[in-house]
Amino acid sequence: MPALTDEEGAFLVRLARKSIEEYLRNGTKIEPPSDTPERLRGKMGVFVTLNTVKGGKRELRGCIGFPYPTHPLVEATIESAIEAAVGDPRFPPVKLEEMDDIVVEVSVLTKPELIKVRDPRELPKVIRIGVDGLIVERGYYRGLLLPQVPVEWGWDEEEFLSYACMKAGLPPDSWLLAGTRVYRFQAEVFEEEEPKGRVIRRRLG
User: Fold this and answer.
1) Exposure of 97 by Cβ count < 10 A (0-12 exposed, 13-18 middle, 19+ buried)?
2) What pTM value is reported for the model?
């Protein structure tokens, strides 16, 4: 998939914010705008992340999305934005007045690909911090971490794998076990510089 333009990224971030605020204000889900760029009607994976920014501190407030390209991007962004605000089980629902202190971030994902290695111990060598996101699957358990997460927390490749396992509800060393499947994907990340502010492309490296 060719890279999204900055304008397309800004469109998605503004759409995510509008979706949340309209839902919190009126309980309604907006329809995809008529001026949606054609490429954003194609199917792509997407995550919407909400971060509260106060006093120089940045705290996660919600993050929900579609890992696989199963829905048109514009529709998946609307759904993910609303769910990130009111459906993330880790947090109470966002209130409308909180949106003045929340930065909206949209990550558009490539299709996840299974990482194939002869020995699981080789996995850290093929993972690129600041480039790859991870999905860990084992049985019915699955966990996903976006590419920006290890950058924000200063993790190395092994820590990234371990935390992805824990996100799946698995012991941290589960990536070393036969039968655990590890997928990687990349993301284009767009976010507000400040709440309701200008949208920028986020550089992860």
Assistant:
1) exposed
2) 0.94
Residue 1 confidence (pLDDT) above 60: no
Domains, in order of start, for the chain: 6-110+187-201 (3.30.700.20), 113-185 (3.30.1490.150)
Cα→Cα distances 69→4, 13, 182, Å:
15, 18, 18
Tens-place pLDDT, residues 106-135: 999 999 999 999 999 999 999 999 999 999
Tens of pLDDT, residue by residue over 41-67, are: 999 999 999 999 988 889 999 999 999
135 has which bridge partners?
144, 183
- Please name which of 67, 69, 71, 10 lies closest in space to residue 37, comparing C-alpha atoms: 10
User: Do residues 75 and 33 lie in contact, with contact meaning Cβ atoms separated by under 8 Å?
Assistant: no
Say how many C-beta atoms besides its own lie within 10 A of residue 117's C-beta.
12
Element (H, E) at 21: helix 6-26
Angle at 82 between CA 144 and CA 28, to 5 degrees: 160
CA distance 87 to 28: 15
